[in-house]
Design brief:
A hairpin with a 2-residue loop joins strand 12 (209-210) and strand 13 (213-214). Strands 1, 2, 3, 4, 8, 10 and 11 form a seven-stranded mixed β-sheet that branches. This protein folds into two domains: 8-203; 207-268, no CATH class. It is 24% helix and 21% strand. It has helices at 17-29, 97-113, 116-121, 165-171, 174-179, 186-198, 247-259, and strands at 8-10, 37-45, 51-60, 63-70, 75-78, 82-87, 90-95, 128-134, 140-141, 151-152, 202-203, 209-210, 213-214, 229-231, 238-239. The chain is globular and about 55 Å long. By secondary structure, it is of the alpha/beta class.
Length: 317
């Protein structure tokens, strides 16, 4: 019987079909009993103010596991630091995802330990163990040794010889068994549920905003934003002017705006209105004025000619 929705808390629904499929498969394999509990698709802010996205956090009798899902098909090789992924004849290099997942695990553990419910219960929370779930059924995983550490495929959950992700969750990993002093019980589940609520866990914001507009999901890193941007404050509103922004140009605009570049193109904010004292030709830095506009009344110290924006290739991505 799949884990019930009372135990499986989808803080937000994933925007990616392959990630939803992987999470649905996980839920169907997990038992619906204490102390099993799961939280999916959420983000938290750590002590340094950094936002951390988590695909799934699962509490089991063997411990507490932070799961990073990777659904890319093809062939994966590499070492403990770098993975080489070959998909459709194209090779790409990535950092071993366990490195970042391990950092997230430590940040989340630190955040949860500081919550009032944990202090009051005088209970030691389980160690947060990072796991990488390679969910693609067509993946040929050739990782070995330390490169394979903490990384699991779907395996065969119904088999006694299973070595997949479900076996790791049920029985724990070697490192988790060495650290975990005792089995997790229903009391740990109650305290952890309260601590997660107190920690300000929120839905994962995979879609970002530019001014008033909610951008669509990227087809791929550096790709094109598909569809139309939606206005964040108008029901059903659309932003045809930003329907096909190239990823690199969009990142350049954001970098330049943050840096305060006066020549940066700016995405207009429809909530801004002219002030009563606004006169023709008194544009903000980076805004264009009509040909022949009166620039004599520009604010003191404002240059008559705006510097050109830097070439987008100079903006690091």
């Amino acid at each position: 019987m799949p884990m019930s929705l009372s135990r499986w808390q989808a803080v937000a629904q994933s925007q990616f079909a392959w990630e939803r499929e992987a999470l649905d498969w996980l839920r169907k394999q997990l038992p619906d009993r204490e102390p099993w509990h799961a939280w999916t698709n959420f983000e938290f802010i750590d002590e340094e103010g950094k936002v951390n996205e988590v695909d799934a956090l699962i509490l089991t009798p063997a411990g507490l596991f932070l799961i990073e899902i990777k659904s890319r098909p093809g062939v994966v090789t590499g070492d403990a630091h770098t993975w080489l992924w070959v998909t459709d004849g194209r090779e790409r290099a990535y950092d071993n995802p366990l490195i970042l997942a391990n950092r997230k695990s430590k940040r989340l553990a630190s955040l949860l330990r500081r919550q009032p419910s944990v202090f009051k219960a005088k209970l030691r929370l389980p160690f947060v163990e990072p796991l990488i779930f390679l969910s693609a059924t067509s993946l040929d995983c050739k990782l070995g040794g330390t490169a394979r550490s903490g990384t699991y495929l779907r395996g065969q959950p119904d088999s006694e010889s299973d070595t997949g992700i479900i076996d790791a969750l049920q029985n724990g990993t070697a490192s988790a068994r060495a650290i975990q002093l005792s089995r997790v019980d229903h009391q740990h589940a109650r305290v952890l549920a309260r601590a997660m609520a107190e920690a300000g866990i929120r839905p994962s914001n995979k879609h970002r905003k530019v001014a008033d507009y909610q951008l669509g999901a990227l087809l791929s890193e550096g790709g094109v934003l598909p569809g139309l941007g939606r206005h964040a404050h108008r029901d059903g509103g659309r932003a045809p002017a930003y329907s096909h922004l190239h990823g690199r140009r969009c990142r350049h605009c954001r970098c330049a705006q943050v840096a305060g570049s006066p020549g940066a193109a700016r995405v207009p904010d429809s909530r801004r209105h002219r002030s009563p004292g606004h006169r023709q030709g008194q544009g903000l830095p980076g805004q264009r004025t009509r040909p022949g506009a009166d620039l004599r009344s520009r604010p003191q110290g404002h240059p008559a000619r705006l510097p050109a924006a830097r070439d987008e290739a100079n903006c690091s991505t």
